[in-house]
Amino acid sequence: MRTIKSDFWALTTNFLSVFF
């Protein structure tokens, strides 16, 4: 489950970086 959480966090960070 840790891998999924990491992937989710990574996606969120990427989205934020692109959005901002």
From TrEMBL:
Q: In its UniProt entry, what is this protein called?
A: Uncharacterized protein
Q: What is the lineage of its organism?
A: Eukaryota, Metazoa, Ecdysozoa, Arthropoda, Crustacea
